[in-house]
Amino acid sequence: DVKVTQSSRYLVKRTGEKVFLECVQDMDHENMFWYRQDPGLGLRLIYFSYDVKMKEKGDIPEGYSVSREKKERFSLILESASTNQTSMYLCASSPGQGGNTEAFFGQGTRLTVV
Amino acid sequence: AQTVTQSQPEMSVQEAETVTLSCTYDTSENNYYLFWYKQPPSRQMILVIRQEAYKQQNATENRFSVNFQKAAKSFSLKISDSQLGDTAMYFCAPMKKGKLVFGQGTRLTINP
Predict the structure, then answer these.
(1) Is the pLDDT of residue B34 over 80?
(2) Is the pLDDT of residue B52 over 80?
(3) Which of B42, B36, B2, B3 is nearest to B20 (CA)?
(4) Are B33 and A31 an interchain contact pair (Cβ–Cβ within 8 Å)?
(5) Which candidate from B47, B50, B91 shows the least CB-CB separation from A43?
């Protein structure tokens, strides 16, 4: 079974802190994604990576950056956390560019910025 | 940006009933894929069903089926003989260039 693991289920950080959310997948997938989930807005794509060291902005990249130094790991970075970044963050991976390929998700990190 | 609309924020039905969740989307592509995901209280996103746009036949997975109308850009999900375990958030998600674009979600509650 494909497994996508996010390092924390719950996280509380202070305004202005630098925050790292880590995601690891064990199926050698090329694509990895970070989404943000908010009530009434569904999931919105923050960043997307289709290969090591490659990244592409999604719909809401402001205030975030990402790092993909190894194929299996995709990190989301909040350079200076703000209260409006309090949200649920979901990581996902999928195998290559095939359009019918399912994306597999981690269990989410609920981040609270105080 | 591609938009996906799920017009029913919440739905509630009795166990064993049939329920249909609606979804409309916009796209300029001719060949694409569409997915329905569910997210139970555990927060784990699970694939429910997928549809290939070039196939006229609607996809079916056990109690789950879709009504795909390409010209209308409509992709509804039908759940037959609903079960308590179907209680979850349901998301419609067309895929564009390898990326899923999600609707706002429908919170479905199955009552005993």
Answers:
(1) yes
(2) yes
(3) B36
(4) no
(5) B91
